[in-house]
Amino acid sequence: MQFQSRRKFLQGGSAAAASFVLASQWSQPARSAEDKRVRVGIIGATGKGDYGHGVDVAFTKLPNVEIVSLADEHEGGREAARKRSNPKRTYSDYREMLAKEELDVVAICPRWIDQHHDMILAAAQAGCHIYMEKPFCPSLAECDSAIKALQAKNLKLAIAHISQYSPVLDVVLSLIKNGEIGDVLELRARGKEDQRGGGEDLWVLGSHVFGLMRSLAGGSPTSCSALVTHQGHKVTKADVVAGAEGIGPLAGDNIQATYTFSDGAYGHFASRHGMAGSPSRFAIQVFGSKGIIEMESGYLAKGYILRDSSWSPGRTSKTWEPITSAGVGKPETRTDGSYEGGHIAAIKDLFECMKQDRVPKCSAEDSRAIVEMIVAIFESHRVGGPVEFPMKTRVNPLTLLQ
Q1: Domain locations in the chain as residue ranges
Q2: Which of 69, 121, 259, 393 has its CA 20 to 30 A from that of 377?
Q3: The domain 3-155 is classified under which CATH number: 3.40.50.1820, 3.40.50.300, 3.40.50.720, 3.75.10.10?
Q4: Does the pLDDT at position 321 exceed 50?
């Protein structure tokens, strides 16, 4: 089936029809080698989130990918990006690109998240699957809208929470499942706590550890209780400012949050301005009845296991053992441990999802659940008590402060 008929059919058809078209495009044995190449369009925004952590370049490292086009309203940035990814055509307006080009996948690269919702809707309208920089969207209402547009055409979206694609996570999940640290009691995570500590750290870096928390706890939390302070006092409407990177209304230089999970475990997240550790505490620890596992954020970042039910190696002389993709105490044999390596793993997973009509490892729904964990902190602070999931409030809670 040709790309032109695919797009027209996707734009006018049902989800079931879209599924049929996708299956025919990706499974027809008669397609030529040229047709099997994935046609990619890149969206960047120089000066407004740019191209994220090299999302555009990652596509150039994959076989069977054709970089068809690139859009960026900034002329200088567009030319620099053209030299990096060598697209056939460039545009100053991504909407024009999506209207004119026949694409299979759109790379939404900017870090600034205030642009993400509109870019997702435009890509979905064009019948394109999406790989994008994190975080997803700045409000649950926008997350809901984006997911509805994607589901209407059975389109896949994967997001660059690269830890979710790490083989080290697979090993850690296997250790937990096999009872190596016993029953999971607590999960503790912190941001980088640098000059962004507090609300900005929560959005930009907390999103990574919340993805890990959901994976390690076996799903989304059931409730959240939190307190947000600024210079020692509880955040009020007067403390709300415009957040960096398109985050929207933001507040707080000290975040303290607790989550409950259905199996009885508790999750904790904290971030305080100017309290960074060296090395960084940006990681998550899983405390079990028989020991602890720690994971740093990152693709192929090492994990560690402490087989000590007291959690106190100073008293027991137990030692931490490294966890790699090869297992516990084994040297890492892979060489792709970088941000780019994480992008490539995530994009490959997306391509397989397109062929097999399955859900990406970090999907649009997963991304919304991560955003929900973030905004639940502000909602709990606003109402002065725990909030349950799924949340009823879908707008930014800080806009509702009295």
Answers
A1: 3-155, 165-333+370-400
A2: 121
A3: 3.40.50.720
A4: yes
Residue 181 to residues 151, 164, 167, 198, 374, Cα–Cα distance (Å)? 38, 21, 19, 31, 28
pLDDT in tens, 136-173: 999 999 999 999 999 999 999 999 999 999 999 999 99
Task: Tell me the per-residue pLDDT of 41-60, one tens digit each, with 9 for 90 and over.
Answer: 999 999 999 999 999 999 99
Position 343 scores a pLDDT of: 98
Please tell me the class of the 165-333+370-400 domain. Answer: alpha beta
Please state whether the predicted TM-score (pTM) of the whole model is above 0.85. Answer: yes
